[in-house]
Design brief:
The structure is a homotetramer.
Chain A: H1 9-14, E1 24-31, E2 34-41, H2 44-50, E3 55-62, H3 70-84, E4 94-98, H4 109-114, H5 121-126, H6 128-131, E5 137-140, H7 145-148, H8 152-163, E6 167-176, E7 185-189, H9 208-211, E8 215-225, H10 226-233, E9 249-253, H11 256-276, H12 281-288
Parallel strand pairs in A: 4-5, 4-6, 6-8
Antiparallel strand pairs in A: 1-2, 2-3, 3-7, 7-8, 8-9
Chain lengths: 289, 289, 289, 289
């Protein structure tokens, strides 16, 4: 009757039980300070089993002891950058889309990440001597259809037509199944945005098919649906109309405002490192100031 | 092992089962557009049963069909004002304290309510001819000890010494047991602030004993603890260290930012009507502009 | 050596002295609670004299006694709506662009106005039975090139391609010459956005030529350049490198945050009335809630 | 008829002309990356000449080439800390008051600075083993009388009674005479807050006499009154009712939101270094996170 909801491929896989799933490969390793997990959906049978498109889904998981000081965050950004770089075309302009609603805490990760992004497209055009060596990066916060009347996908398509990027990076707040993953797991995928995902708002699909260029999705779970939590707590089939939490009820950490801001910062810095190559924290900050 | 948590007296009472509780009286009636419920704790036996001090606890509950347009909100404010007025001294200055942390969505109701308050104390002092007929009202957002280093109670005590009010109104975001009450229930009480309540942060006690003047508490539940939700879903005693949600995990509506703002507005207007007497919405607004 | 700067056509005209200017017509009248002034640039000679494109420039000026209560603001919105309506195509979708930088107080009027806009395009598409009678309105806050890497004009062009509106309304904070006009004058024009205008940031041109559809510009001055103020105070030619204020120094009212918010509200409501026809304040608010 | 307004002692002194002023001593030196200037008012004759109380007024001025990257800002904070330390009692609790109105850009420096402050009083009390070696520091943002009904001085007196600090540090946005000093000059003084100063709001006096403990004032000019600018541009006595800018008109940089935030950060870090002794930027940040 009710379905568990998660936007994390690794949770979808583990939800299927312990044995191997045809068309799905999984592997794990450690890149300090993060634990990496890769799910690869290799054929349609795997795609159907996970209800996710074929492609690669990487998660980077924080240890419980993560200190969130600037040194730790910088190291985490470097690991994420190393995971992100192979998913992107080697060169060419990139459009970064920060999906979601800045006015809703649970959904603001995308726009918040753009605050930490090194945007260069205008500089490479206006000052080619000084900035022509940099990769042209533009940023779009498309907002939400309820306040713009424009579908996220329409706006991104419009920006893609204008900026002609070689790839889109789409950042989104996600829903997880496990409370332990909230603001502690980063997911990277080369499959674009799947319709229906997004922490507080469903999104339209954005992918190579619909945009004609690679769409790399980055996300962090900020909520667990209360209904999903209930389904995990109750014996099979015991959730019904009487005790099921309303679909709009979400679980998140009490300091979600702070935790989401930290994740946005790590993500933004990771994208900068992936796109513009190695630099020191001071160099990045000087650009962002 | 784990306890259900609620700051609403009516939920504490109903948590004790259906029969009468010695030392506790309850009654219900309707004041459109709200359903009113009064719990009166009449002796120490009742106080012990509810783990709440003796006194009066009023809740005003919205219908599911509440439209939240300005007409509806104005009517709701008038009903709350009528409930609040008898709890306050008939005249004399009043200090309104907006408890909680403006930077945390779940805890910001108190400071947000102050944004809608008619503050008059400085006007009655500086311009007695024009404003001397008004009740002197001052407002304090004491913040949280983690960012100020000062206990909420200390700051309120300091302000009370300076402003010498006849009563304190303390506004706070609360935790409920039932998801249906989130941002839909207003609680008014003449017993002050109870240590340990507050949606995201425990508070120190503030009451007639500690301050020497009446302390009227107003609150709206903005969260349900995920652990409390789990306790309500599971058969008795089935929550343990393995499946219990972390104490810092909270359930709230996905549009909590918006819903809390609406509640703050209704509360602020209700306090204005209770303190300054009947006026039109236009008159109040002209003062607030 | 230095030039006075103003984005208001009526100030440009009065800066040319008292006599008639060939190719420019002016008339004044009153529509309570505002004083209206129309400058019509009828030929290229007039356009050259004012350094503004041919077309119509309407200003609506507040009295000093404007009360800014909701009744007053509603009446002002109605007058502005009546001025705006004839500038727009009678039917068809409209895209409203809120230009400027929400993070800079002096430049935030455009994005702030969108907060008060009735956006309907998604509703007319998703729920044609309920909303099909409404004009499809979409809203875009294109941000600023320094944070997006995308030119405002590019983003609007992209949105125009997707939403196919019959007209664009572009809202922008302006610079005035006279301090008395700050947050007290509304300018409406059918000539689009002129390159180089905008309170804190120059804008690219957006007009019928570049977009292929009418572009109606709405603006309110929020700043006077300190240099312009100096030029008006000093005898001719007395401003030089030694005493000229830096170009980035701007004069505005000390409560500009509040005043700009009020202007945004009046503007947003005016656009709603112009696009969706007469309605009561309560009806508009119910839609916006 | 009109008076130039400045809260900077060094500008008041230079406004008196080139010669020596009885009762006022001045000296200058450099502490990279800042230029330091000390005005000492040694007797009542000097106090009368400057219309400022006897005591020490230090200003630290940025070079035009200041880079505002984190390295530069850290060095500036260290210089300011070295200037601040001798003004403070060697030990004992300190209350830091961030004066002004967070909702008005020009006046928000005080509250914004508190966001960067290491607040320790609650930790030294709750966890004396871990934090007992630290100086107890508390923070108060008293707001403005128009929204609280409580005088800033009353609230600080209340907090002083509760926290019993050995000194108060009061931070405030200031008005300067020269545009070049905006967000580029830090003033430190051991004379407390002078009635009538503050960028956008006059303040009540706070000093050793009224509070019984040293009051150290820190400030940065964020505005020049437009009227003061006009007085400096015009030949003597040429400003009259016809051309004088309204008293509420203020000049500030167009990116004042950003510049004030940077100054708040430098000030906050300087106070931390002065109160808690040398530490690395990483150590401070770990505390603040």
């Amino acid at each position: 009757m009710y379905q568990r909801r998660t936007d994390l491929a690794m949770e979808r896989l583990s939800g299927l039980g312990e044995g191997p799933v045809p068309g799905v490969a999984a592997e794990e390793w450690r890149q300090e300070p993060l634990a990496i997990h890769r799910v690869t959906v290799t054929n349609q049978s795997g795609a159907k089993a996970l209800d996710r498109p074929m492609g690669q889904y990487l998660t980077a998981q924080l240890d419980r002891s993560a200190s969130w000081d600037s040194q730790w965050m910088w190291e985490a950004s470097q690991v994420l950058a190393a995971l992100l770089r192979p998913l992107l075309p080697e060169k060419g302009p990139v459009l970064v889309a920060g999906l979601g609603n800045r006015a809703m805490t649970c959904d603001a990760l995308g726009p918040m990440t753009l605050d930490h992004l090194m945007v260069t497209r205008h500089l490479t055009r206006a000052l080619p001597d000084a900035f022509g060596h940099m990769r042209p990066v533009s940023a779009l916060a498309p907002g939400v259809v309820g306040t713009t009347g424009l579908e996220t996908a329409e706006l991104i398509r419009g920006a893609v037509k204008q900026a002609q990027p070689a790839a889109v990076i789409a950042i989104d707040a996600l829903a997880a199944r496990s409370l332990e993953r909230l603001c502690r797991t980063f997911q990277l995928s080369d499959t674009g945005i799947t319709p229906g995902s997004g922490a507080c708002n469903p999104r339209q699909g954005l992918n190579q098919q619909t945009l004609g260029i690679p769409v790399i999705a980055l996300g962090v779970p900020t909520v667990v649906e209360a209904r999903t939590l209930a389904l995990d707590l109750l014996p099979e089939g015991r959730l019904d109309e009487k005790n099921a939490p309303d679909a709009g009820m979400l679980v998140s950490p009490k300091d979600i405002d702070l935790q989401a801001e930290r994740c946005a910062r790590v993500l933004g810095h990771a994208i900068n490192l992936a796109l513009h190559g190695d630099m020191t924290a001071a160099e990045m900050e000087q650009f962002l100031c």
